[in-house]
Design goal:
elongated, 2 domains, 20% strand, 3-stranded antiparallel beta sheet, alpha+beta, 12 strands, Arc Repressor Mutant, subunit A
């Protein structure tokens, strides 16, 4: 299939140059009409041409993203999926498996983008990716900031909040085993005080128990002060479980852990790959 080269006509160049000179990656239909000094219908013809040539990508009704020149002279067809998905709902942040992949905490290949919001929205598609919107309660909607993804700023949960969210809802991380692996990988570069502060802010003793048990299982090197605070948070809840509810006993489940007062209703095989994964490995230099 022949590759189409990205070209620009005089009016199209005005739009691209205006965005580049103002260091912007987003624009609207009205702004394009203003730059061109034309009506909206005339601007639509230029917009359609820029989309066809691979310079603009529609993000929402009347909103467009610039596919920057750095992406090369060829029409790529698909720009930044996260930048496009960020226009679906506001406020929002990318979390769970999507944030874990951004930080390199998982090796799973995913075609689902997890957008966390405070409202319910139906799932939708952005190119070949499915966008799943997860409604989060107000006391858990925090721990995110702007990050650069291929030249676009989007809101992403930080490493600590990402790992906690994945433990809270493993179904959005690839399952309990993958959530444990994500936490193990995250704790190798971790702000333990921030993580415990987050758990305290969420005020969820059961989640603190799950978090603590997984940290021990993966042998994460938790500082004594953070552990003491975590145990105090965990004491706010009674017995809890990890995985399916205890009445749905899973065959080969690990069982009850007395230290964290938690029933691990997960097969040992599912957690096998994460066992000890959080322990720092010291590489000895050869003599």
């Amino acid at each position: 299939m022949p590759v189409r080269t990205r070209t620009l006509g005089p009016q199209e160049s005005r739009i691209v140059l205006a965005l580049r000179e103002s260091d912007r990656a987003e624009t609207t239909r009205a702004e394009i009409a203003s730059v061109l000094g034309t009506g909206l219908k005339a601007a639509d013809h230029v917009i359609e041409s820029l989309r066809r040539k691979g310079w603009l990508e529609r993000a929402a009704w009347g909103k467009y993203l610039l596919i920057p020149p750095e992406q090369g002279p060829d029409v790529l067809g698909n720009s930044n999926l996260l930048a496009l998905a960020s226009h679906i709902i506001d406020p929002y942040y990318f979390g769970f498996g999507t944030a874990a992949a951004h930080y390199g905490l998982t090796t799973q290949i995913r075609n689902v983008i997890y957008v966390v919001a405070q409202k319910e929205r139906r799932a939708r598609s952005v190119h070949d990716a499915r966008v799943h919107i997860v409604k989060q309660t107000p006391n858990k909607f925090f721990g995110f900031s702007d990050v650069d993804v291929l030249g676009y700023e989007v809101k992403m949960s930080d490493r600590e909040k990402t790992s906690i969210d994945c433990v809270d809802h493993p179904e959005f991380a690839g399952g309990v085993g993958e959530a444990a692996s994500i936490l193990a990988a995250a704790t190798r570069r971790y702000d333990w005080d921030k993580a415990v502060d987050y758990l305290a802010r969420m005020d969820a003793g059961a989640l603190a128990r799950r978090f603590g048990w997984i940290c021990d299982y993966v042998k994460a090197e938790m500082p004594p002060g953070a552990r003491a605070r975590l145990e105090k948070l965990a004491a706010k809840s009674r017995k809890t479980w990890l995985g399916a509810p205890p009445e749905q006993r899973v065959q080969g489940a690990i069982g009850y852990d007395e230290a964290w007062r938690i029933f691990i209703n997960v097969p040992r095989a599912e957690l096998h790959e994460s066992a000890g994964l959080g322990k720092r490995k010291i590489v000895k230099s050869g003599k």
